TrEMBL record:
Pfam families: Translin
Gene3D superfamilies listed in its UniProt record: Translin, domain 1 (1.20.58.190), Translin, domain 2 (1.20.58.200)
Name of the protein in its database record: Translin isoform X1
Lineage: Eukaryota, Viridiplantae, Streptophyta, Embryophyta, Tracheophyta
Coiled-coil ranges per UniProt: none
Keywords: Cytoplasm, DNA-binding, Nucleus, RNA-binding
Length: 299
């Protein structure tokens, strides 16, 4: 009997480890009942469910505040919502025009690819130039959209940047095929109908487009030599040599433009190999020796 009371005392003492829980201990002690089943030699103690500490009821659910948000906070985020919706709508309109520029650029590119098949050059250029007017109209629409948000040019610039670089590369290639020199920055702006003061051609986009244009020249040289034009490698080599020397004046960072300039150097090396191969075989004219010396001196 004494051991039974000792066990009951130890069980109740577990609830009184915290000195502040005297009330819970009292409630626990009151919940202990002595029962004696039939045939049992000694009573045993049973603790009912009401022995749980009363403080547990207060931890069952967190308290929620029903106070409305502060007027200043609500007004600020309402302004954010309006600005984000307007910016998203403007960006969607810009991307729509950029997709149309890309579509017209693909048609121009497919027309220019015919130059590698020894098609008549005037025919190829006329077919490619037919897309310039349409691309110019698209840039005019793009400038009109950006006029609605003055000073936000570079915020949305990435939405049409790659398309502009491709357009510049194709225009520069066409210009070289027609005239034989590099398309200048202001000339590219004029062809696209851009205004430098409001909506102009970014310098890096122009330079990257020029590097893209140089990627077409090694293939063009090989195809022209195959067609019997042995003077083409010399012309392309001189052009790329001058272009490479001009790029070396720039202090380029380790970014995408620097990588594209490295590709220009590889294009120059490929054209050099074709030209030297043609020259070793004696297929070049004797009047090219002076220009060869000048070209080699610039390298």
């Amino acid at each position: 009997m004494k051991s039974a009371f000792r066990n009951a005392y130890c069980a109740s003492s577990r609830f009184s480890l915290n000195p502040s829980s005297v009330g819970s201990v009292l409630s626990t002690a009151s919940a202990i009942t002595i029962t004696r089943p039939l045939g049992s030699p000694a009573p045993y103690f049973a603790i009912t469910a009401s022995a749980r500490p009363r403080s547990a009821a207060f931890c069952s659910a967190p308290m929620a505040s029903s106070d409305p948000p502060a007027p200043q906070l609500e007004k600020q985020f309402e302004g954010f919502r309006v600005q984000l919706e307007e910016s998203g709508s403007l960006r969607d309109r810009i991307r729509t025009v950029a997709m149309e520029i890309e579509s017209a650029t693909r048609l121009m590119h497919s027309s220019l690819l015919l130059v590698h098949q020894s098609r008549p050059l005037p025919e190829v250029l006329d077919k490619a130039k037919a897309q310039i007017g349409e691309i110019k109209d698209h840039y005019s629409r793009l400038a009109k959209i950006l006029s609605e948000c003055p000073g936000q040019y570079y915020r949305y610039h990435g939405d049409w940047r790659s398309e502009t670089q491709t357009v510049v590369s194709l225009l520069a290639f066409m210009h070289w095929l027609e005239i034989g020199n590099l398309l200048m920055h202001d000339e590219a702006e004029e062809k696209l109908g851009l205004n430098n003061s409001e909506f102009g051609l970014d310098i890096e986009d122009y330079l990257i487009g020029v590097c893209f244009m140089s990627n077409e020249l090694p293939r063009y040289v090989v195809n022209q030599v195959t067609a019997g034009d042995y003077d083409c490698p010399r012309k392309v080599l001189k052009f790329l040599t001058d272009l490479n020397a001009s790029f070396r004046m720039l202090n380029l960072r380790n970014d995408f433009l620097r990588k594209k300039f490295d590709s220009l150097k590889y294009d120059l090396r490929k054209v050099e190999e074709v030209y030297y191969d043609v020259k070793i075989r004696g297929l070049t004219s004797s009047g090219d020796s002076k220009e060869d010396q000048v070209s080699q001196g610039q390298q």
